[in-house]
């Protein structure tokens, strides 16, 4: 980078209380230079999510925890959700770059630990460490873009960041498929490289960010709201534990009711403490007086439920019902990536040109709702072109909606609160994603056992099926799956590959029937977001200043 392209470095002055003056406007070339560093850090986090999603079945089978796999996703999302608002405050105080580098460091440590996990619950614990770092990568990237661009320009540049997720959605499953499909590599289980590969990628990201990420910064005095973080954890974690364990405990069991009570106490304590903290609050309550911010956070939460729910369930459909390898399942998601990247870039340019965003927001959520409806009608023998139709609607919907929801949440917020506001908006999206991943997988495995049992009971009444199931190869595969008392052991799905397709069919039909219920739930949630976007979001024009 030449001296003529140099970007003003962060202020070395002490904290000031009045950062009211907007930062100096950067040229397009300078903004793109900063973006190159942000996109590399974002790619690190986005790649990890998609790599893990595509290989989760293989990982869960190897660690004998298929029905507990939701912990691997939710543990990451829980810690990332709680840490996200803290990153906003920390970056307001110390500057975006050093906090961003700390986020990458934590993410890398978590990745190393994940690479050596020996059980599904240990992996979930290490994913929680990863989440502490990953929680800052998305929100800080969006905050930095908001720092250096006008409201109208944000959609254009945030579109590049959103496109990173589109690219990772195809690269991630391919990388995950390659690693998960190998028994070992350099003497280490293949799937473990899914996490270990983050280490060199993180090193490259650090080098690039140290060279290019020099953004204007005026420090703001904040007290760090550790009490808010603690009470937030108390309010969220018990409810997510119930979402994961409710099917085994019973949704109204004494233990579940106790968790509900703890969560309620945590929520009341959190709101009370945030009122007392005022501007120093982890989630400043004054921001919720701003209608655009209030609607943006609500939509982030609701759309996040459907998005993460679909991202965790669809790979299972492709691998279980269609018998695809993780790599083949990744290739099958190409329509999602193509639609996402294309629509993201087009919508970003249209927003920059016209200043209008509501039409794209409503159309995007509507498209995603259609995708959920399509997925809810999938059968075991549905053709791949039909699955691809749903993927196109999903990719286009997320491409149009995610960047416009962020723009909505930021559109009326004062610059001095931009870090906290952007982190808060991403907090609600991550929280929605946590709820979606935990609840949708809980619904799936709650229903799957019963529906598989019903189909097996009917199938065993047919004498040819019974004789087929009793053949040595099929009987060996079913050994340990069919319990003597009549229950099922679904912790490992690898037995399906050894079964005769005719014997496997009742299992697949039961799984797919449960997935239909999951996607139908996602459609209902997305429809709620569509109604809010269409009737409540004002049709305003973004400022060009």
UniProtKB/TrEMBL annotation:
<feature type="transmembrane region" description="Helical">
    <location>
        <begin position="329"/>
        <end position="347"/>
    </location>
</feature>
<dbReference type="InterPro" id="IPR004638">
    <property type="entry name" value="EmrB-like"/>
</dbReference>
<feature type="domain" description="Major facilitator superfamily (MFS) profile">
    <location>
        <begin position="34"/>
        <end position="541"/>
    </location>
</feature>
<feature type="transmembrane region" description="Helical">
    <location>
        <begin position="193"/>
        <end position="212"/>
    </location>
</feature>
<feature type="region of interest" description="Disordered">
    <location>
        <begin position="1"/>
        <end position="25"/>
    </location>
</feature>
<feature type="transmembrane region" description="Helical">
    <location>
        <begin position="293"/>
        <end position="317"/>
    </location>
</feature>
<dbReference type="InterPro" id="IPR011701">
    <property type="entry name" value="MFS"/>
</dbReference>
<feature type="compositionally biased region" description="Basic and acidic residues">
    <location>
        <begin position="7"/>
        <end position="19"/>
    </location>
</feature>
<feature type="transmembrane region" description="Helical">
    <location>
        <begin position="124"/>
        <end position="148"/>
    </location>
</feature>
<feature type="transmembrane region" description="Helical">
    <location>
        <begin position="255"/>
        <end position="273"/>
    </location>
</feature>
<dbReference type="Pfam" id="PF07690">
    <property type="entry name" value="MFS_1"/>
</dbReference>
<feature type="transmembrane region" description="Helical">
    <location>
        <begin position="99"/>
        <end position="118"/>
    </location>
</feature>
<keyword id="KW-1133">Transmembrane helix</keyword>
<keyword id="KW-0472">Membrane</keyword>
<feature type="transmembrane region" description="Helical">
    <location>
        <begin position="427"/>
        <end position="448"/>
    </location>
</feature>
<dbReference type="InterPro" id="IPR020846">
    <property type="entry name" value="MFS_dom"/>
</dbReference>
<feature type="transmembrane region" description="Helical">
    <location>
        <begin position="160"/>
        <end position="181"/>
    </location>
</feature>
<feature type="transmembrane region" description="Helical">
    <location>
        <begin position="31"/>
        <end position="56"/>
    </location>
</feature>
<feature type="transmembrane region" description="Helical">
    <location>
        <begin position="384"/>
        <end position="406"/>
    </location>
</feature>
<feature type="transmembrane region" description="Helical">
    <location>
        <begin position="514"/>
        <end position="535"/>
    </location>
</feature>
<keyword id="KW-0812">Transmembrane</keyword>
<keyword id="KW-1003">Cell membrane</keyword>
<feature type="transmembrane region" description="Helical">
    <location>
        <begin position="359"/>
        <end position="378"/>
    </location>
</feature>
<keyword id="KW-0813">Transport</keyword>
<feature type="transmembrane region" description="Helical">
    <location>
        <begin position="224"/>
        <end position="243"/>
    </location>
</feature>
<dbReference type="InterPro" id="IPR036259">
    <property type="entry name" value="MFS_trans_sf"/>
</dbReference>
<protein>
    <submittedName>
        <fullName>MDR family MFS transporter</fullName>
    </submittedName>
</protein>
<feature type="transmembrane region" description="Helical">
    <location>
        <begin position="68"/>
        <end position="87"/>
    </location>
</feature>
């Amino acid at each position: 980078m030449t001296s003529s392209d140099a970007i003003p470095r962060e202020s070395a002055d002490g904290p000031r209380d009045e950062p009211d003056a907007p930062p100096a406007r950067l040229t397009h070339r300078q903004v793109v230079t900063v973006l190159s560093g942000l996109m590399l850090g974002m790619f690190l986090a986005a790649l990890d999510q998609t790599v893990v999603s595509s290989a989760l079945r293989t990982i869960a089978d190897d660690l004998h925890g298929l029905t507990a796999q939701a912990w691997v996703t939710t543990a990451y999302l829980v810690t990332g959700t709680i840490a996200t608002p803290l990153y906003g405050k920390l970056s307001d105080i110390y500057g975006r770059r050093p906090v961003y580098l700390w986020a990458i460091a934590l993410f890398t440590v978590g990745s190393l630990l994940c690479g050596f996990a020996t059980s599904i619950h240990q992996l979930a614990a290490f994913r929680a460490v990863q989440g502490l770092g990953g929680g800052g990568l998305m929100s800080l990237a969006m905050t930095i873009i908001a720092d250096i661009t006008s409201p109208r320009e944000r959609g254009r540049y945030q579109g590049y960041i959103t496109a990173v997720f589109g690219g990772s959605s195809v690269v991630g499953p391919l990388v995950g498929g390659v690693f998960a499909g190998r028994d070992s590599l350099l003497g280490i289980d293949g799937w473990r490289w899914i996490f270990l590969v983050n280490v060199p990628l993180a090193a490259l990201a650090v080098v690039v960010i140290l060279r290019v990420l020099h953004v204007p910064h005026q420090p703001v005095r904040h007290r760090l709201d550790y009490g808010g973080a603690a009470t937030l954890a108390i309010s969220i974690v018990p409810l997510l534990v119930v979402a994961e364990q409710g099917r085994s405990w019973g949704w109204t069991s004494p233990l579940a009711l106790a968790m509900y009570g703890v969560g309620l106490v945590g929520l009341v304590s959190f709101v009370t403490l945030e009122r007392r903290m005022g501007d120093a609050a982890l989630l400043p309550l004054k921001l919720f007086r701003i209608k655009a911010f209030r609607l943006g956070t609500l939509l982030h939460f609701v759309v996040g439920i459907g998005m993460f729910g679909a991202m965790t369930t669809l790979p299972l459909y492709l691998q279980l019902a269609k018998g695809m390898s993780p790599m083949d399942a990744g290739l099958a998601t190409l329509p999602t990536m193509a639609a996402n990247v294309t629509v993201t870039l087009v919508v970003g340019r249209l927003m920059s040109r016209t200043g209008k965003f509501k039409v794209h927001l409503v159309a995007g959520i509507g498209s995603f709702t259609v995708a959920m409806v399509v997925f809810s009608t999938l059968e075991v023998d549905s053709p791949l072109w039909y699955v691809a139709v749903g993927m196109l609607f999903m990719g286009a919907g997320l491409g149009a909606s995610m960047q416009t929801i962020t723009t909505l949440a930021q559109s009326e917020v004062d610059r001095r609160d931009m870090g906290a506001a952007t982190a808060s908006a991403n907090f609600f999206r991550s929280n929605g994603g946590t709820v979606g991943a935990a609840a949708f997988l809980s619904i799936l495995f709650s229903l799957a056992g019963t529906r598989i049992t019903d189909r097996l009971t009917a199938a065993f009444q047919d004498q040819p099926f019974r004789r087929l199931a009793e053949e040595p190869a099929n009987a060996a595969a079913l050994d340990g799956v069919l319990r003597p008392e009549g229950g099922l052991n679904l912790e490992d799905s690898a037995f399906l590959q050894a079964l005769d397709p005719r014997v496997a069919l009742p299992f697949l039909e039961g799984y797919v029937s449960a997935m239909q219920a999951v996607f139908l739930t996602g459609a209902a949630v997305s429809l709620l977001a569509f109604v809010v976007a269409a009737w409540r979001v004002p049709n305003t024009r973004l400022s060009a200043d």
